[in-house]
User: Fold Pantothenate synthetase from Nocardia pseudobrasiliensis.
Amino acid sequence: MIVVRSMAELREMLSAPRDRGESIGYVPTMGALHEGHLALVRAAKTRDDVVVASVFVNPLQFAPHEDFESYPRDEDRDLGLCEKAEVDIAWLPSAQELFPPGFGLTVAVPRLSSVLCGRSRPTHFAGVTTEMAKILIQLAPTAVYLGEKDFQQLVVMRALVRDLGLPLEVRGVPTVREPDGLALSSRNAYLTIAERPSAAALFRILSELVAALRAEPDSVAAILDEGRRELVRAGVARIDYLELVDSETLEPVRIAIRSNRLVAAVWVGNTRLIDNLEI
Assistant:
């Protein structure tokens, strides 16, 4: 595995594979790697000749009151996991290179970014799309791999790539879960032992709601109301949202059909959890 820290180094390392016509799969991460990230790497390795994984905690996607400073970081561990997963190139860029002094560009997908997570994190997705637009234009991979756990991000990124006309694919990879069903996330490390049962209840309740929506597709509002009550009974401290949405537009739907997404964001203690399931 080759480790590079600048875009110039990265592009130089990729020049020979490009000349040979090899495909390049890009796996963006913020580090604190877990099995969900490694699933992205495995998916890329099955389809692309060269796999690039980045480790970069993007400051643009954090609001001032959020956990940018405390977000878990362990470069040596992350590089070890990348090497074990047979990543070809690990790229560790700096904020100074990506966003130098005077950087003033914002790239946004407003309609898709202002709903769901965008209501409580209004600057988040513009930070994600600004970073990713700059990287994808310069890196020019064949495909970028993103987890379905962050479903809204996946939808936003597909719109970004489509609207910019970038010649690459955005490939979603299924959510990886703990044995108790909790979707893997670097922020799970914030949960206390006492909070884990409430966190795990999110997946159980979503699964029950999916079954109910399939059985009674005309009863969306009533089923979601009962789901909110179940979440509170399970110990969820606050519900940001629990909605059934169109999988492309993210607009709420009143009658459930297959391919709709049940999406949720909740707080357990001081930890914000997101999850989703397809109907």
